[in-house]
Amino acid sequence: MWQGIIILGILSFLWILYRNKRYKKKYTDPFREMIVNLFFVYLVSVVFLTMQPFQWNLPFGIWGGKTIYHFDFNLFYELKNMSNPKLQLLYSVGNIALFVPFGFFIPLLFQHCQRLWVILLLGFLASLTIELIQTFFTMTRRGTLDDLVFNTSGAVIGYSLYMIIKIVVKKMPVSIYIAKH
Asked: Which of 58, 99, 125, 176 sits at a 20 to 30 Å CA gap from 157?
């Protein structure tokens, strides 16, 4: 737990330094700046949620010792074998909800990422990165194919929400855009 708080503190300090330096160099839109900072908080939260407890391991037996890797390639095996239906719901909906902001923020902040296939690819790659880190670098977590499917689905749902809001805002007389369209 303490390692997570220390990492969070260091990341936040570096982020504040970076944003202050960037803000002083040129004018930035305050609304866009707020969205960028919310996205940072979201990303740090995802790291915190997916990597705790913070017990790290060097991969491939570096510094001696045996390393056992756990990646569940059986789609929905873990979900099917949970005895509690509430836990099944929390597991699946929680993994989907974890990536909804990702699918929403990415096209909002980056003009070149406003296509479904880009969000699908980025959501999958971000989830794959988390699963591989859990598999190779943590001693208490393991990657699952279920998480890849649920997280990628969450990114697509977030993108769908972005598109719905974009259409509604375009129909309004005065519209606010963050990324140029």
From this structure: 176
